[in-house]
Design a protein that fits this description.
Radius of gyration: 23 Å
Structural class: alpha/beta
Helix content: 25-40%
Number of helices: 11
CATH topology of the largest domain: Dihydrodipicolinate Reductase, domain 2
CATH class of the largest domain: Alpha Beta
Largest sheet: 8 strands, mixed
Strand order of the largest sheet: 6-7-8-5-4-9-10-11
Number of domains: 3
CATH superfamily of the largest domain: Dihydrodipicolinate Reductase, domain 2
CATH architecture of the largest domain: 2-Layer Sandwich
Order of helices and strands: HEEHHEHEHEHEEEEHEEHEEHEEHEEEEH
Oligomer: single chain
Amino acid sequence: MSANLYQDHLTNRKNQEAQAVQLLVELNTLANKGVNVLFFGNRIALNLVDIIAHHDKNALNIADTLAFATALNDQNLSHTTVDLGQALKSGKQADSFTSGDEVPATDVVLYGFGRIGRILARLLMSRPASDKGLQLKAIVVRPAGEADLEKRASLLERDSVHGWFDGSVVVDKANSGIIANGRFIKVIYASDPSEIDYTSYGIDNALIIDNTGKWKDEAGLGKHLQSKGAKKVLLTAPASGDIKNIVYNVNDDTIGSDTIVSAASCTTNAITPTLKLLNDKYGIENGHMETIHAFTNDQNLVDNHHKAERRGRAATLNMVMTSTGAAKAVSKAIPELKGKLSGSSVRVPTPNVSLAILNLNFKNPVNSSDELNAFIKEASQSEQWQAQIAYSDSDEAVSTDFVGCEKVAIWDAKSTLAQDNRAVMYLWYDNEMGYSTQVLRVAETMAKNA
């Protein structure tokens, strides 16, 4: 690199940093007014590096974003969502946005504090401190030993897959709780929902997010509603019976006033948005879904007895054939696909990020892989789908590249195979983080539907 070119790059970077500092002030002001600011569907981390990276990636000038954010603040907006990236891309003006209704606070209780429970806690605690929206008030776990509180806090703070928690975690032993980013979370020990009176902890009309998977029908999950202070229940696993399995942005409009709802499974959430797009565009005749899935906590680390077939074999040493209900569950979100999809699963020796393979036959011809990729790429950049679907066209992409991705699925364009009326497509997904973001979107919808 020549000296002049280097100097040009350095000068440009310094200008970007100076503008990003000013933009941070505007974004913080918007956040304090209750304006949820996104950038092409992504949450913006309020730091210089993240802001500059978002602009470089999308070929936008920070100066333009700064001017738009300043204009938004002049509008004195509150309680609304603004996607700055989409607004700049479409040429919207700041005065086209209006304030929304104030979002009331909803007490949230995480019943179970395993992999999904802790990711949900991290996501909730990463939001700006507020007395509006979803408020994590407590977690419920089974009675345990004397050092349990410290161990729970440590598991929240440290994670072998997702790294350190972005903030502070302090044990409040005197009050049997954890203080995360300045907010107190009560730790309640109970073996059954019937034992709990949430109102005795200052919690009322709470949304209970059940992460245990212990109960999946109305009779079992209904036990939560017998607890004083509980109002609604959201299950983070596929439900049975008449309980609705909800995939956000596909069938969340059917939640209504239901008090018990399921957020389906990570795989169902990963494939359903894309299947809806494909079905609406080409019409799905039939097909098969195979998930190459990261091993999960219900498998054994070493060979040992297990009630399920094959899952007793060492998870870190074997590819394990198993079953999945994801393909069948899709029809609960997209009824017209009932009976059209089969599904199977292989658990593989990796702790996170899975891969769904869709092998589909269409009513209408797809013609080519390029056509199919272009269709999904356009959808992934649309305001409707950008929060759910990402697009990758890298020759070097592998599973660990998508650890921590909050999109529910990442389309692997380099692997698409399409000809005539048939196509094979590959979707990566962080089966922990991507799914958890969908769970919270369903939770927010339930909270609004008072």
